[in-house]
Amino acid sequence: MTGTPLFDRRMLEALVCPVTQAGLAYDADRQELVSKQARLAFPIRDGIPIMLVSEAREL
């Protein structure tokens, strides 16, 4: 990694999808939190999850 902080996986326990309120899966390779139910992937930038639907990538 090039100095980018890694996502703190302990935060995953507290975060839910803003659309479905379901749990999220962490994709370390893409630095995303994935909501399988909503079929959205939320980016993690500088170690901070961006939980905005407008910023999410459709799966």
Automatic annotation (TrEMBL):
Q: Where is the signal peptide?
A: none
- Record Gene3D superfamilies: 2.20.25.10
State the similarity comment. Belongs to the UPF0434 family.
Protein name as it appears in the record? UPF0434 protein C8J29_10962
Protein's organism = Cereibacter johrii
